[in-house]
Amino acid sequence: MTSVPSAGAVREAGADVTLSPAKRALLARLRHRSVPQPDGPAVLRPGAGRPGLVLVHPVGGAVLCYAALVSALGGDEPVWGFAADRPADDLPDAGRLAGLAERYLATLDLAERRWVFAGWSFGGVVAYEMARRAGGTAVLLDTAYPGSDPPEDEAAIRRFFLHDLCRTAGLPPPEPAAGAGGTEPGVADLAARAGLTADLTAAEIEARYRVCRSNALALAAHRPGRYEGPVWYVRAGRSPDHGPAWRQVAPDLRTRSLPGEDHYTLLGAGPVGAVAAVVREALRRADRGE
């Protein structure tokens, strides 16, 4: 559910060699982005077409996970990305996710164009809430229905964070291990055991964890409201099917499934073309008001 580190979390020296060409190109744009306000979007791809596409960060807060998707989209619609470089601890857990949606919408000129809001995993829930409030189209990329798998406790969030970070980096998570005196080691120590410290410092890992924890708690407390507008649900074939749950609140749900893919391969080089085709269809139909 998280992505690889954002521009603020990738070390300047040495990290780029481990990234794909698409991610290196996107990272270069992010490093030189001009954000008019702290919660404003980064331009992932400039364009003059309509409508506009907004991609919302997954639970880890970064947007490099969308690099291959942006490259595969084609067309000339502009693409913006919302990243989270700090936890939203100023918002209460119960209203935090809706507050993020409102905060991000406040930085967009909603009267300028039609909008498509998309996100992978946690990002899809925020995108859905943005579409509800703005009257746009939502695209949920393998997005579980909120509350379907809440974290049990702090240790569960830590285990999830490490699992997520490892899977997005293409590494297996380390086996659970206790620290000195039987205590659980910190996330930076766990990440070091998993081999993740080549591209991230301990401080960067802890910062990523704080963002992940904030978003995980927001997701667990959130319950989506009903939306009658268009919602697309793209499911990785090996993921649980949350379509029926989403349809309870989004009756105009349009579903697609990619057999053989799991949550962490959905945006990979192989299936991303099929994902991009769904997003393009959503853009075309949004432009026609469908």
UniProtKB/TrEMBL annotation:
SUPFAM superfamilies: alpha/beta-Hydrolases (SSF53474). InterPro entries: AB_hydrolase_fold (IPR029058), Thioesterase (IPR001031). Residues 53-134 form the Thioesterase domain. It holds the Pfam family Thioesterase. This is Thioesterase domain-containing protein. It comes from Micromonospora tulbaghiae.
